[in-house]
Amino acid sequence: MKKTDKQSTLEGEALPKPIFRSYKPTDEALNELLLEPATPGDVTSEVEEQLESAKSKIVIDQLDVTSLAPRKPDWDLKRDVAKKLAKLERQTQRAIAELIRERLKERSQTENLADLVNTGVQDQT
């Protein structure tokens, strides 16, 4: 007879053994795979230590207030806005430079006009 693939894999490999943590098997042969129930640890000493530490009063002079609060509470706002501010700063500098150029052009034109008027007055006399 020809063996199927499923039968050949079952014979070649051992099946995993189950581990029973909370299930109590009814078959006596499976009782040996049953894990023993876990015993809770002793936490009374830890609780007593915490209660003792809670009873002691902390002197405010010993407590450093600056270590509790952040130094700069708006650091995340500055981080988020920094790129936008840099862009606006560049635009502001360009606008200021353009205004200065316009004023210089106006002054140079008015000075030239004033020079022309002055020379024209001098020529008539």
Relevant terms:
coiled coil; Coiled-coil domain-containing protein 12; 125 residues; mainly alpha; mRNA_splic_Cwf18-like; 4 helices; single chain
Q: How would you describe the shape?
A: elongated
Instruction: List low-confidence stretches.
Output: none
* Helix count from the secondary structure assignment: 4
Strand residue content? under 5%
Mean pLDDT: 77
Largest sheet: none
Number of strands: 0
Rounded to an integer in angstroms, the radius of gyration calculated over CA atoms is 45 Å
Order of helices and strands: HHHH
What can you see in these coordinates?
The longest helix has 50 residues, at 75-124. 59% of the residues lie in helices and 0% in strands. The mean pLDDT is 77. The chain has a domain at 82-125. The protein has four helices and no strands. It has 125 residues and is an all-alpha fold. The protein has helices at 5-12, 44-55, 65-68, 75-124.
